[in-house]
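Tokens in:
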């Protein structure tokens, strides 16, 4: 298997060196750019397997870099993990809505970052799933074809919106989904869904899941994810 390449876009050279050292030890090839303009030029040529993108860059900021890469068909499918500072919640939401796959808050644990990289690369390798195929997470089974949810073999009665929220989160375990992304997934058949009602639906969904309520994790200021 060929070595996977990580492209680091970060303006602090000491962080780039630290990341390069640890990622190389994990078997990754590492490329880097110290600003957004350089990244935009280099990434389409190098075509890395995953991008680590700092949001706070001089000149062309991380969100604009994300927007440009996701608009380009050549680079749109490259998994992207944002490196963010505390207090950048609104930027995280914007980045996820632009198509970034995940984020890690500085200061971050290298062990956590490496795990996130492994996860996005694993998801990229997984074949597209049939929307009607059952989803299994330990003793939770979601059967889209039957519109049925079972916990420990017992049926859980959910509303249409609760079912769709659970389904869209469970299809992408570990992925953070913003409220807007959840609304887009649930919208249809004239069901009214808003940011606030997503939170209400999740509260109701957790109550019905009982002992498995913790499968749905809140990502403060951003949205929700299904426990990986």
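Residues out:
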């Amino acid at each position: 298997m060929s070595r996977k390449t990580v492209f680091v876009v970060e303006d602090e050279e000491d962080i780039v060196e630290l990341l390069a050292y640890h990622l190389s030890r994990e078997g990754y090839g590492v490329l880097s750019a110290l600003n957004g303009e350089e990244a935009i030029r280099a990434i389409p040529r190098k075509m890395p397997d995953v991008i680590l993108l700092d949001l706070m860059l001089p000149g062309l900021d991380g969100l604009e870099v994300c927007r440009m890469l996701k608009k380009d068909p050549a680079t749109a499918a490259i998994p992207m993990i944002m490196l963010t500072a505390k207090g950048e919640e609104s930027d995280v939401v914007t980045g996820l809505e632009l198509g970034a796959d995940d984020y890690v808050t500085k200061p971050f644990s290298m062990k956590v970052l490496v795990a996130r990289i492994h996860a996005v690369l694993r998801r990229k390798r997984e074949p597209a799933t049939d929307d009607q195929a059952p989803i299994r997470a330990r003793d939770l089974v979601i059967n889209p074809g039957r519109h049925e949810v079972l916990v420990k073999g017992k049926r859980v009665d959910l509303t249409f919106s609760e079912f769709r929220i659970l389904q869209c989160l469970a299809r992408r375990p570990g992925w953070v989904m913003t409220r807007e992304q959840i609304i887009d997934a649930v919208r249809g058949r004239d069901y009214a869904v808003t940011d606030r009602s997503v939170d209400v639906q999740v509260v109701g969904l957790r109550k019905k899941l009982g002992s498995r309520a913790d499968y749905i994790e809140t990502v403060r200021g951003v949205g929700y994810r299904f426990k990986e």
